[in-house]
Structures are given as C-alpha cells and as structure tokens.
Design a protein that fits this description.
about 70% helix; mainly alpha
C-alpha cells in the first residue's frame, strides 16, 4: 500500500484503557502524544500572549485565574479534573491520553507563558495569534493521532451527545458558547483570535490527522482488522 493510500484510509479507534496498554508501538504513541500535548499547551500560551484573545475554554480559564490569583495552567488542570467527574455518570472511558491531557496541557500553558513575551505591536500580535492557531491544530492532530484516549472536554462532548441522543457537533457548539459567554462575562480575553481559532482549528486538525495517525495493527499481539475501526479521521476536530 502506498503512503498516499495509507494516509487516505487511516482510521481512529476508540480504544479502552486496557486495549491502550496492549496496543502496538505504545512507546512511540506515548512520545507522539506528549509532543502533541506540549505543542498544544504552548500554542494556547501563544494565543493568550498575543493579546488578541484566547481559545474559548481559555477565556474562561484566564478569567477564573485572574479572579482567584492563580495561573491559567492551574485553572486548566482544575477544570479538566472537574469535567472528568462528569464523565462517570456519562460512562465515558478514561484513557492514558485523558489523564496526560488533563495535566500536561495546563503545565505547558504555564511554561509557555513563562518564556513567551507579551506581543509588542499589532504585527507581532497577529503573528503570534496565527502561529498559535496553526500550531494548536497541528499539535491537536498529533495528539489525537497517537490514539491514546480523548481529552476531558472531548469526552464531555461525546458523552452528552450519547446521553441526549444528539449529534456531537451541535453539542460541542453549545458547550463552547456557554463556556465562552461565561468567560467573557467574568472578564476573560475575548478577541479576534478567539474567532479565528474557532473557525480555523477544525480544518487544520483535519488536514493533520491523516499524516499523524498511528494505525492500530495489533492488540495483545493479535492483528486487528481494518474494519474494526470505529471512527474515521473525519470525526474529532478537538483535542481537549
């Protein structure tokens, strides 16, 4: 099978934690996941430091961080674990990537904001904002492609969609709007960067996934048929 053909047929599998621990090329998957999560958190810091608005969830995180005297990364981690509590009644499955996402994205945000300067002038701000959006989408695709579990916000989306018997797209939009409005009311950094992020993230992840997905070939030493995959790469468009 040619590389182009393999990319076009790459699929994402909804693996349980037990299966994740038995999947082929686990060390490579963990490495790819951590690279993706690091870039993801760093890109969110780029958006915030640009001064042109944060990602929708970070509008809320930043607002709460300012009011509580904490860092944005600390609030990101705290909110992630609150959302994981909601997973239990929704019967969502926690994976390796779920826990790693909950912790490391917040750590990476704080590290990024520690080393990145605030944008000085409009050209620098626009450059940082655009780099943040592009890096976020690529990093999201890299993280998702490792196939080690959904982030806490994605799990909330899919869980509510299943319980409410509604498509995940509209559910995600409603969640993002609620979070964004709440964060804005609390004084979070809403801006043009927030809008561009919301519009551009999905397509960038979509373009990245076929190149970043590590296919599941074996579980516990046994070959997995291609048709066993439960979701094509055209499914998820978020990674948190």
């Amino acid at each position: 099978m040619t590389r182009d053909r393999r990319r076009s047929t790459a699929r994402l599998d909804n693996l349980s934690l037990r299966d994740q621990l038995r999947v082929d090329r686990l060390p490579l998957r963990v490495l790819q996941m951590m690279v993706g999560l690091t870039g993801f958190g760093f890109s969110l810091a780029l958006l915030l430091e640009s001064g042109l608005g944060g990602a929708p969830w970070d509008v809320l995180h930043a607002a709460l961080a300012h009011r509580l005297g904490l860092t944005v990364g600390t609030l990101s981690i705290s909110v992630s674990f609150v959302l994981l509590l909601v997973w239990f009644p929704l019967r969502e499955r926690i994976g390796i990537g779920t826990i790693a996402n909950s912790i490391w994205v917040g750590v990476s945000i704080d590290l990024g904001m520690l080393v990145l300067p605030e944008a000085q002038g409009i050209p620098a701000a626009v450059t940082m904002m655009l780099l943040g959006v592009v890096l976020n989408g690529i990093s999201g695709g890299i993280y998702i492609g490792a196939q080690l579990g959904a982030g806490p916000r994605d799990g909330l989306m899919t869980g509510l969609g299943r319980v409410l018997d509604r498509p995940v797209g509209p559910v995600r939009i409603v969640l993002e709007v609620i979070v964004l409005v709440t964060g804005t009311v609390l004084g979070g950094p809403l801006g043009i960067g927030t809008v561009i992020y919301a519009i551009g993230l999905g397509p960038i992840i979509q373009l990245t996934l076929p190149y970043a997905t590590i296919p599941v070939r074996t579980l516990n030493g046994r070959a997995v048929p291609a048709q066993a995959a439960q979701e094509t790469v055209q499914g998820p468009t978020q990674s948190r």
